[in-house]
Specification:
The chain is an alpha+beta fold. The chain has three domains: 75 residues; 120 residues, Alpha-D-Glucose-1,6-Bisphosphate, Chain A, domain 4 (2-Layer Sandwich); 156 residues, no CATH class. The protein contains twelve helices and twelve strands. Strands 1, 2, 3, 4, 5, 6, 7, 8, 9, 10, 11 and 12 form a twelve-stranded antiparallel beta sheet that branches. Strand 2 and strand 3 form a beta hairpin. The longest helix is centred in the last third of the chain and has 31 residues. The termini are far apart.
């Protein structure tokens, strides 16, 4: 079934992805384990046939080689959407990876112990109605569960990040709910087959801390920039600002007021009642307003290494992460996830310790 779906998937691949397959096939065939087929593969790859025909010929005649390239591409690419869950209890990640079943209906599962990851593949059928008839498509669809473990304050914290790939509307009935439904599907699978409890993480407190950092006079190294935000006041008024990864933005409404106070500090110091009223308004508005989504950008000295992530806060139990298009692969996403779970642990420990600090 895998081969059948991949053959049709090649037809709907983007041209850039086809060239990625071509490049990786040319690199992989140089390894000694493929000595016996190298000449035939090189002849196919160097032919003047259309690129999709060459890829199909490799898949048909040398499927092991093609599937190895497919695995490498799918586990190293950055998927489009994700959510992060805390693992409850004294769980053993190596044991989870070892004990996960790999035989299940309608789902192919691969274990990658060295990456602390499970790769899930589903086989999707799609349709696209046209005036002259209906087009039918097949494609493989990948989802991953990556396990994380960090130590902080002499405590070990474990997490699982579930990521799902993007796919065309013909495979999801044009509904965005397809992606959170896939995340929930993998969450339920892991809980059921491994007897685990995955607790959804809401990153609101972490994002509030990042928002405060962005407004500080001096921002710590590696703190992401807010590059977009939607704010809904208790009155129902809304404000939305968005920028690209190279622009600075002033946050909606409150950012303007805070900047006004900073720029005219001497004037406001002579009118402390007005300054207090404005500060109280800002504090109350921040406390009672909703932020349906916020964009963060992790900058890099090399501009092409920057990555922008949208955090959707109100639609699901967890914070839904949407990675905007970038070419940095899985590695740059790992940087983002590591930052988030470390900040989450720091924030949670601070909140837990605050009541005791106040009592003392």
């Amino acid at each position: 079934m895998f081969k059948e779906y991949l053959l049709e998937e090649i037809d709907i691949m983007t041209q850039s992805l086809k060239f990625i397959y071509l490049g990786k096939l040319k690199s992989l065939i140089k390894f000694t384990r493929y000595d016996s087929i190298r000449s035939d593969v090189e002849n196919i790859l160097s032919s003047e046939e259309p690129l999709e025909t060459r890829l199909k010929n490799i898949l048909n005649n040398h499927s092991d080689l093609f599937l190895e390239v497919n695995k490498d591409i799918t586990i190293n690419k950055a998927h489009k959407y994700s959510a992060i869950f805390a693992l409850e209890g004294d769980v053993n990640i190596d044991g989870i990876l070892r004990d996960t079943v790999i035989q299940t209906s309608g789902l192919s599962i691969e274990k990658m112990a060295e990456k602390k990851m499970l790769k899930f593949t589903q086989f999707l059928n799609g349709i696209k109605p046209l005036e002259e008839g209906t087009l039918y498509f097949k494609t493989t669809y990948t989802m991953c569960a990556k396990f994380w473990e960090i130590t902080q304050y002499e405590e070990i914290h474990r997490f699982v990040e579930i990521t799902v790939d993007n796919v065309g509307p013909q495979f999801r009935d044009g509904k965005m709910s397809f992606f959170p439904n896939r995340i929930n599907y993998i969450k339920n699978f892991i809980e059921t087959h491994n007897s685990l409890l995955l607790v959804p993480i809401d990153f609101s407190e972490v994002l509030n801390e990042i928002r405060k950092e962005n407004e500080a006079a001096e921002v710590r190294m590696n703190v992401p920039k807010i590059s977009g935000q939607r704010m809904v006041l208790s009155s129902g008024s809304e404000a939305t600002l968005q920028s690209n990864i190279s622009e600075e933005i002033v946050l909606p409404i409150l950012g303007d007021l805070k900047q006004l106070i900073r720029d005219n500090e001497n004037l406001f110091n002579t009118s402390k009642d007005i300054k207090e009223l404005l500060n109280n308004f800002i504090q109350d508005t921040e406390e009672w307003s909703e932020f349906p989504w916020i964009n963060l950008t992790w900058d890099n000295k090399v501009k092409s290494k920057s990555i922008q992530v949208k955090f959707e806060l109100n639609n699901y139990e967890y914070t839904f992460l949407n990675y905007y298009h970038h070419k940095n692969g899985r590695g740059r996403v790992d940087d983002v996830v590591k930052y988030l779970i470390e900040e989450y642990c720091t924030t949670r420990n601070r909140i837990l310790r605050e009541p005791f600090a106040k009592i003392s």
